[in-house]
Amino acid sequence: MNNDKDNATLYAELEAERFMTDQISLLHEAEDLADGINFMLKSIGEFTDADRAYVFETSENHTSTNTYEWCAAGVTPQILRIFIFLL
User: Fold this and answer.
1) Which top-rank group of organisms is this from (predicted)?
2) Are the C-beta atoms of residues 34 and 68 closer than 8 Å to each other?
3) Number of Cβ within a 10 Å radius of residue 73
4) Does residue 59 form part of some domain?
5) Is there a domain that residue 22 lies in?
6) pLDDT tens digits along 5-62
7) What is the pLDDT of residue 2?
8) CA-wise closest residue to 27 among 62, 68, 58
9) SS3 49
């Protein structure tokens, strides 16, 4: 590799590390964990130019549940949302 490519690679890696450090700090400082996770998913999705970002939680019986999801504009969420209205 030439020096220009080495420098570009190092710069990209540094930017990614800074971004992740910032996300961890923001999550740590969030007053509400769910809000912090949702903000972090949005930031990661936008940073990586993704259509969606997920968090899955695994239970003791080895099943996984999609507990958090961020979707880009125009992307249909895949997370199951159940709303119960009490009358």
Assistant:
1) Bacteria
2) yes
3) 5
4) yes
5) yes
6) 788 899 989 999 999 999 999 889 999 999 999 999 999 999 999 999 999 888 888 8
7) 65
8) 68
9) coil
